[in-house]
Specification:
The chain is built from nine helices and seven strands. By secondary structure, it is an alpha/beta fold.
Length: 283
């Protein structure tokens, strides 16, 4: 006689039932358990487009498909595929905003009504966290009878340290959010920090001139590191505090992420810095 299902099986059964029933109930984090951090240098068996034109965004933003056709394909944590035959469906607009390491999707959900006409995608390396955000977005969409809300946000499983240029063309993005990234305190781990000389060049490649990199952390040492490396990059200049305080997205970033709320509860500090993408010099 089989014994009771173990915890892992219960989590799998819960997530499967949530997908099959199409419920409007919000997913519960306890059924999407995962380590707090993932090694970005490991082989996570990710699939990704060979180039931006091969990325099929239609499964993440079905309301923005230029020529919608019936399909049974839905968002899953393994949706990111290089598709050349048949070609991916085109959207009426491009993805413009990226939340790198989006966690449980607090910023995505909060940004959706702030910029309703802009496509915002979260990129998360942890598979079960990605699945949670996708189920959360699905439930939020199902709650809206007119199917207008939360259509402009999506989440994909991806390693941005390796594959960001595979998803976005040069100058495609207007905003990149880096919220409470892993501080990697040990010096030998600094190479894994999400802000570095090499990665800043990739951010500069994907951002259009005038685009903004938003950074926030509760670790002062990491804040200084990010400021130092972004200020040293020739493609970026730091945004003034006056302009920073006037930016609506800054307040959302401070208060709506899960990590930001945790810092608030613990009465910790939040260090914010914004950087503007400069025009490229004439060749």
């Amino acid at each position: 006689m089989p014994g009771p299902a173990n915890k892992k099986q219960k989590r799998q059964d819960y997530r499967q039932a949530l997908k099959e029933n199409g419920t409007t109930n919000m997913p519960k984090k306890k059924f999407y358990r995962q380590r707090a951090h993932a090694n970005p240098f490991s082989d996570h068996q990710l699939t990704y487009p060979t180039r931006p034109d091969d990325m099929d965004w239609s499964t993440f933003f079905p309301a923005f498909v230029a020529d919608p056709q019936p399909t049974s394909f839905t968002q899953t944590s393994t949706d990111v595929k290089a598709i050349s035959n048949p070609p991916p469906k085109k959207l009426t607009k491009d993805v413009e905003v990226v939340d790198i390491g989006c966690g449980f999707g607090g910023l995505l959900v909060a940004l959706s009504p702030v910029m309703p006409d802009t496509l915002v995608v979260g990129m998360e390396i942890r598979s079960q966290v990605t699945e949670f955000v996708q189920d959360r977005i699905k439930a939020l969409r199902a709650k809206d009878p007119e199917q207008n809300k939360f259509q402009n946000i999506g989440c994909i499983r991806a390693n941005t340290m390796k594959f960001l240029p595979n998803f976005f063309r040069k100058g495609q993005l207007s905003k990149i959010f880096i919220c409470f990234p892993d501080p990697h305190f040990k010096q030998r781990k600094h190479k894994a920090r999400i802000v570095s000389t090499t990665l800043n060049s990739e951010y500069a490649y994907a951002l259009k001139p005038g685009g903004i990199v938003y950074t926030i952390t509760d670790v002062e040492d990491l804040h200084k590191w990010m400021v130092q490396h972004l200020e040293a990059h020739p493609s970026f200049e730091r945004v003034s505090e006056e302009e920073q305080d006037a930016d609506t997205c800054v307040e959302v970033m401070r208060t709506e992420t899960e990590e930001g709320k945790k810092v608030e509860r613990n009465k910790g500090q939040k260090f914010v810095a914004l950087f503007r993408r400069l025009e490229d010099p004439p060749w």
